[in-house]
Specification:
This protein has one domain (5-178, 217-267): LmbE-like (Rossmann fold). The chain is of the alpha/beta class. It is globular. The chain contains twelve helices and seven strands. The protein has a seven-stranded mixed beta sheet, sandwiched between helices. Bound molecules: zinc ion. The site of zinc ion (ZN) has 5 residues, from loops.
Length: 291
């Protein structure tokens, strides 16, 4: 029997730990090979001077943080696409010709081709990316979400056209979901602290109200509470981006907000918007493709 293969297609060093740091160790425990696309080097995130240390650039520092997270999350392989982080929409960094945003805007087929190359190498049965709003609206998240969804669709069509020839075909596509309760909690907490929920995060580029408005239906919930400690360790690696916050959330609140990780099933699309799975590998045929 083939092992299950899962590809997470994200944009920055830290997306994997902050977003799926409790789910990844569960898949590893389940015997799944987990692959990661990190599309940018994280060049632009603000970094406190005292954390810069020996690293000449923000990208170097953030890649070392990703290396640290890998020790905890145990990816089978990490594919770096090495685009430049685009930073905030409309900023000078987003117009840099090597930025993911610029490339997506001017050469989308090139970005899709890079993602397809990874699909062909890792041959994932299951693919996860951001939702259509890029989780909280970051333009790099939206770019990699679109490139991943297009790569998925093109490979499915190619395999359909050559049906029976053993051509690789990905079987399921998901968007990772933020739990609504968490987002509502963040809005409430921001207001209680006198902060503007439309300008949150270390770079003040997160509009939490829009994030809530763009949440998509959840079809799969997987239990992850057992892995909070791994999540905390992986997140702590990304200290320059404010990692290690989870332990500062009280235990009961953490359980209430984060015990289950939700996903939107994009392909195959469910007939109704309701939770009908607790496993991304439900109905996957592990032997359906060549490797
Ligand atoms: Zn990100």
């Amino acid at each position: 029997m083939e092992r299950g293969r899962l590809l997470i297609s994200y944009a920055h060093p830290d997306d994997e730990s902050f977003g799926l740091g409790a789910a990844i160790p569960k898949w590893i425990d389940d015997g799944i090979d987990v692959y990661l696309i990190c599309a940018t080097n994280g060049d632009v995130g603000a970094v406190p001077e005292e954390l810069r240390g020996k690293y000449a650039t923000t990208a170097e520092l953030r890649l070392s943080e990703l290396e640290c997270a890998r020790q905890h999350l145990k990816f089978k392989e990490v594919f770096m696409l090495e685009y430049r982080d685009s930073g905030m929409p409309g900023s000078e960094t987003s117009r840099h010709p090597e930025s993911l945003c610029y490339q997506w805007e001017h050469h989308p087929a090139g970005v899709v081709a890079r993602v397809k190359e990874v699909f062909k190498r890792a041959q994932p049965h299951v693919v996860i990316t951001f939702n259509r709003y890029g989780g909280y609206g970051h333009p790099d998240h939206i770019a990699i979400q679109r490139a991943t969804a297009q790569a998925f669709e093109q490979l499915r069509k190619q395999a359909d056209a050559g049906a029976g020839t053993g051509v690789y075909q990905p079987q399921k596509l998901y968007y990772a979901a933020f739990p609504k309760a968490t987002i509502r909690w963040r809005i409430l907490r921001a207001r209680l602290k006198g902060q503007n929920p439309r300008r949150m995060g270390i770079n003040q580029d997160v509009d939490v109200i829009k994030t809530l408005e763009h949440i998509e239906p959840v079809h799969t919930r997987i239990p992850v509470a057992k892995y909070f400690d791994v999540w905390e360790r992986a997140s702590s690696c990304h200290a320059s981006q404010g990692g290690g916050r989870i332990s500062r959330t009280s235990r009961w609140l953490r359980r209430f907000l984060y015990s289950k990780q939700g996903f939107t099933r994009v392909y195959p699309a469910p007939e109704r918007d309701q939770v009908d799975e607790d496993d991304l590998f439900a109905n996957i045929d592990l032997n359906a493709q060549q490797s």
